[in-house]
Amino acid sequence: MNAATTPPPAISQLYDQHGRPLEYLRLAVTDRCNLRCFYCMPEQGIRYLPKQQLLSYEEMLRLTSLLAGLGVRKVRLTGGEPFVRRDLMGFIEQLAVQPNLTDISLTTNGVLTAPHVPALARLGVKAVNLSLDTLDRERFFRITRRDELPPVLDTLHALLETDIQVKINAVVMDGQNIDDLVPLAELSRELPIDVRFIEEMPFNGGSHAATPDLLPWNHRRIRQHLEQHFGALTPLPAPLGATASDYEIAGHRGRVGIIAAYSRTFCGTCNRLRLTAEGGLKTCLYDQGVLDVRALLRGGASDEEITIALANAFRYRAANGFEAEQQRPLHQLNFESMATIGG
Question: Binding residue per annotation — 264?
Fold first, then answer.
């Protein structure tokens, strides 16, 4: 057998050229959302993809099976809002029995989630990240442009009755919800939850400008603000690949965390990849996509051919989010939406 016909060696773990393993897939099951959060999209929404352009559940299952064979152990379902896609629970049931996947998690805005919480627990979903930027109903409406806080809180209460790990994700926005940081953090006093504060990112679908000059609330200021009320925050050890800096507050049952999503302080140990709802592979939140997986899946590519394409994509992964941003032809990230990227 000559070199031209020699098959490539088997791949048991995906690594990028910086030596980082790829173990965590964020899988967007839809680009649609039932909220209109101003930091994610304009009031009129974004142009959603036709159904036929979205990956089917069968295509997602094939890809997750391949990735699980390449060392991916954790899959987090995102959107848009995952629960606006029909038959999501059936998909999770099939995903839960895939070999090698040890962690299935979910990010949701909670509007439609509460009735499904018992089934999520039964299927072994490990964690749910609940997007909740305020506990005030009027501010919730102003931020999301929808009056949906009560069902979101119903979801929170339903989750707390299970063994599912609960994390609240709150985007910190100057002039919008700063008064909510302390009340949200107070939830961790009596509840076994993580309350995580996220720097606002530029992916807002063109809703408004997003530049460093317009980000006065970075991770340092968020911590300072919390410490002015709670006293010194005690840093906790960070697992490899973690995006949040977690802290303990004296006397609190839960924890608080800060995610430097715009400052990008955690890139050095990033172990995640993203698949958009239309099948675009992103090796960094800030890149423009590195591989059209949908074209491979629908073009008749074999499992081996897809595996090789995935491995090749990671050989040119940006070292960090700043490098990925610089490699884009147009530095206008705010014309993208987190709904299309996968939250």
Answer: no
CA 98, 103, 104 angle in degrees (round to 5)? 75
Task: Say whether 254 counts as a known binding-site residue.
Answer: no
Report whether 65 belongs to an annotated binding site: no
User: Is residue 145 marked as binding?
Assistant: no
For the structural domain made of 24-341, what CATH number should be given? 3.20.20.70
Q: Compute CA 111 distance to the chain's CA centroid, rounded to the nearest angstrom.
A: 17
The string over 235-273, giving b where at least 16 C-beta atoms fall within 10 Å of a residue's C-beta and e elsewhere, is: eeeeeebbbbbbbebeebebbbbbbbbbbbbbbeebbbb
The domain locations on the chain are 24-341
The annotation status of 56 as a binding-site residue, yes or no, is no
pLDDT one-digit tens code per residue, 133-148: 999 999 999 999 999 9
Distance CA 85, CA 33 (A): 9
110 is in an annotated binding site: no
The pair of structure tokens assigned to 8 is 């490539």
- Residue 297, marked binder: no
Contacts of residue 316, Cβ cutoff 8 Å, sequence gap at least 6: 17, 290
Q: How far is CA 257 from the centre of its chain?
A: 15
321 labelled ligand-binding: no
Are 162 and 141 contacting, i.e. CB atoms less than 8 angstroms apart?
A: no
255 is in an annotated binding site: no
- Is 243 a known ligand-binding residue? no
Structure-block tokens of residue 139: 């501010």
Task: Select from 167, 126, 131 the least CA-distant residue to 152.
Answer: 131
Whether 284 has a binding-site annotation, put simply, is yes
167 is in an annotated binding site: yes
**What pLDDT band is residue 268 in, cutting at 50, 70 and 90?**
confident
Does 40 count as an annotated binding residue?
A: yes
Please say if the pLDDT value at position 209 is more than 70.
Answer: no
